[in-house]
C-alpha cells in the first residue's frame, strides 16, 4: 500500500548496526516485490529469516479444471461450497486463469500449528462472514464482515477466527494488487475524486515480537505446490519494520459510491486492480436522479472481458432470486443484462441496498471441479420471459 508505515523499533539509519540489549545484531531483511523496483519494507528480525531445519514433501493444490473453454452464462451457489476445519484445505478455487484464481472458503478453525506464505500471488480475502485477526510479523489486523484483506505475496500469516462460521471470497493475483491508477496523483496519494482515501486504509497494529527458537512449520505456496518448511525461529520475530510493503485492509462499507443523473458505468465501482483484471464494489447508494432515468443497467456486450459478480447482501436490483454467496459469470463474447422485469421495476426507485463484489478479468476464466459441483445449471435460461 503506498502509505509509509512503521511499527516497533528500527535503527536511525538503514543498513547500519542495530544491536540487541546483549550486544548482538538484529537481522535486517528487505522485503519487496517486482525485484527492487517497487514497494518495499525493511524488517528487523531477532534472528536471520533463513534458518531452515527441514524440508517436507511438496504436494499439489493446483486447481482441477472441469471446463476449460465455454460460452455459457453460469451461476454458482457459493454457500454450497464444502466447509472444512483447516484453513488451507477450505480454500476451493472455482474460477481461474493465468492472471488470477478466485476461491471460496468456509473454514471452521483457526490456524494454530502452521503458518502460511503465498509466494506466487498477492491475496485479497473478502470477509463475507466471520470475525477474527490476521496475524503477521508486521503486526495484527482485526477483520470483520465487509473487509478486504490485502496480503502481498511473501507475507507469512495466520488466520485466527473468533468463531466457526466463516465465509471467505478469495482472489489470488499473480501481479501486485494496487489501488486504481487513475485515482492516484504523481506522488501516489489518492485524489479527491477517489471513492476512498488513505484514512480508510487499516494498517497493522500491536506488533508482538516472538523471540523464539524451535520448530516452526511454514507451508509455502509456489507454482501450484505447497512446500512444507520447518524453520528454526518463529516467523513473527520482527522487532520493527518500516516501508510501504505490508498487509492492509479496506472495508467495502467505507467505499463511497459515485452516482449520477443517469446510470453510471461499472468502472465507477472500481476498488482495486491487478494485471488484466479489476475488482469493484457495488454498495448501497442513491439511484440516478434524471426524471426519466432507468436505474437498472442496460444490456451490455462485454466482448473483451468476463464478468464475475459475487452477491454479498441486500436486494440486488438487476436480478431477483439471488442468494447470498451466489456467483454469476457472464463470459465475454455474448451480451447479458438485467433479468426480465427488473428494468420496469427499477424505474422510480430512489436507492438500493445491494452489496456485491465484481471482478472483470480480461482473459477467459476456466471452471474447476469444485465450481461445477455447485453450479445452478439452468441459469443461462434466466432471461426468458
Ligand atoms: Fe454486467
Automatic annotation (TrEMBL):
InterPro entries: HgmA_N, Homogentis_dOase, RmlC-like_jellyroll, RmlC_Cupin_sf. It comes from the Bacteria. Keywords: Dioxygenase, Iron, Metal-binding, Oxidoreductase. The active site is at 263 (proton acceptor). One of its GO terms (molecular function) is homogentisate 1,2-dioxygenase activity. Its cofactor is Fe cation. Gene3D superfamilies: Jelly Rolls. One of its GO terms (biological process) is L-phenylalanine catabolic process. Residues 96-250 form the Homogentisate 1,2-dioxygenase N-terminal domain. Coiled coil: none annotated. GO terms for cellular component: cytoplasm. Fe cation binds at residues 300, 306, 336. Homogentisate binds at residue 336. Belongs to the homogentisate dioxygenase family. PANTHER family: HOMOGENTISATE 1,2-DIOXYGENASE (PTHR11056:SF0). This is Homogentisate 1,2-dioxygenase. It comes from Mucilaginibacter achroorhodeus. The lineage of its organism: Bacteria, Pseudomonadati, Bacteroidota, Sphingobacteriia, Sphingobacteriales.
Amino acid at each position: 500500500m503506498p502509505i509509509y508505515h512503521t511499527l516497533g523499533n528500527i535503527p536511525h539509519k538503514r543498513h547500519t548496526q542495530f544491536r540487541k540489549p546483549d550486544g548482538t545484531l538484529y537481522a535486517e531483511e528487505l522485503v519487496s516485490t517486482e525485484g527492487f523496483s517497487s514497494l518495499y519494507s525493511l524488517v528487523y528480525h531477532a534472528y536471520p529469516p533463513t534458518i531452515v531445519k527441514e524440508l517436507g514433501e511438496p504436494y499439489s493444490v493446483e486447481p482441477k479444471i472441469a471446463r476449460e473453454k465455454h460460452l455459457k452464462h453460469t451461476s454458482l451457489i457459493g454457500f454450497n461450497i464444502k466447509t472444512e476445519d483447516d484453513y488451507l484445505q477450505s480454500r476451493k478455487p472455482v474460477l481461474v486463469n493465468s492472471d488470477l484464481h478466485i476461491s471460496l472458503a468456509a473454514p471452521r478453525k483457526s490456524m494454530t500449528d502452521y503458518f502460511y506464505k503465498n509466494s506466487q500471488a498477492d491475496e485479497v480475502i473478502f470477509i463475507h462472514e466471520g470475525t477474527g485477526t490476521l496475524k503477521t510479523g508486521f503486526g495484527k489486523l482485526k477483520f470483520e464482515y465487509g473487509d478486504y484483506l490485502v496480503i502481498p505475496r511473501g507475507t507469512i500469516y495466520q488466520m485466527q477466527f473468533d468463531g466457526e462460521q466463516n465465509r471467505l471470497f478469495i482472489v489470488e493475483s499473480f501481479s501486485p494488487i494496487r489501488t486504481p491508477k487513475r485515482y492516484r496523483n504523481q506522488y501516489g496519494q489518492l485524489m479527491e475524486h477517489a471513492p476512498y482515501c488513505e484514512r480508510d486504509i487499516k494498517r497493522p497494529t500491536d506488533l508482538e515480537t516472538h523471540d523464539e527458537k524451535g520448530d516452526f512449520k511454514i507451508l509455502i505456496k509456489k507454482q501450484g505446490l505447497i512446500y512444507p518448511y520447518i524453520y528454526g525461529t518463529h516467523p513473527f520475530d520482527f522487532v520493527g519494520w518500516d516501508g510501504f510493503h505490508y498487509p492492509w485492509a479496506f472495508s467495502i462499507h467505507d467505499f463511497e459510491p459515485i452516482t449520477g443523473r443517469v446510470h453510471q458505468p461499472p468502472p465507477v465501482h472500481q476498488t482495486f486492480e491487478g494485471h488484466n483484471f479489476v475488482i469493484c464494489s457495488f454498495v448501497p447508494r442513491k439511484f440516478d436522479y434524471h426524471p426519466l432515468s432507468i436505474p437498472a443497467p442496460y444490456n451490455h456486450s462485454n466482448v473483451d472481458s468476463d464478468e464475475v459478480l459475487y452477491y454479498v447482501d441486500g436486494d440486488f436490483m438487476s436480478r431477483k432470486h439471488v442468494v447470498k454467496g451466489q456467483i454469476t459469470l457472464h463470459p465475454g463474447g455474448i451480451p447479458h443484462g438485467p433479468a426480465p422485469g427488473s428494468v420496469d421495476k427499477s424505474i422510480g426507485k430512489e436507492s438500493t441496498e445491494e452489496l456485491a463484489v465484481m471482478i472483470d478479468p480480461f482473459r477467459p476464466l476456466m471452471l474447476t471441479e469444485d465450481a461445477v459441483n455447485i453450479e445452478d445449471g439452468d441459469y443461462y435460461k434466466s432471461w426468458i420471459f
